[in-house]
Amino acid sequence: MALSKDTIVGLSHTLNVGASNKLRVAKDSSEYVGEDKEVEIQANLNTSIKQDENRNVGGIREKSYKGV
């Protein structure tokens, strides 16, 4: 049995989660953003990649590190 959920939002969409939120995807996952995307993380960010990572940057790439 396959389950799916499609959400089409014409103007804007905000998802507020008051407790923990975990997303698990068993197969491939993709995301398309037509314009700018902003991500704000107020604690730690941990990323684990077990195979390859590919990034294509068409413009200027900036990184800023603060800490010890």
Produce the secondary structure layout.
Elements (H helix, E strand, L loop, with lengths): L68
Structure at a glance:
0% of the residues lie in helices and 0% in strands. The chain has 68 residues and is mostly loops. The mean pLDDT is 82.
Write up this protein.
The protein is largely without helices or strands and 68 residues long. Helices cover 0% and strands 0% of the residues. The chain is extended, with a radius of gyration of 16 Å.
Throw out a few tags for this protein.
68 residues
Please state the overall shape, judged from the principal axes of the Cα atoms. Answer: extended
Radius of gyration: 16 Å
Helix content: under 10%
Uncertain runs: none
- Give the class from helix and strand content and strand pairing: little secondary structure
Oligomer: single chain
- Our count of helices gives 0
Mean pLDDT, to the nearest integer, reads 82
Number of strands: 0
Give the termini distance in whole angstroms. Answer: 50 Å
- What can be said about the biggest beta sheet? none
Beta-strand portion reads under 5%
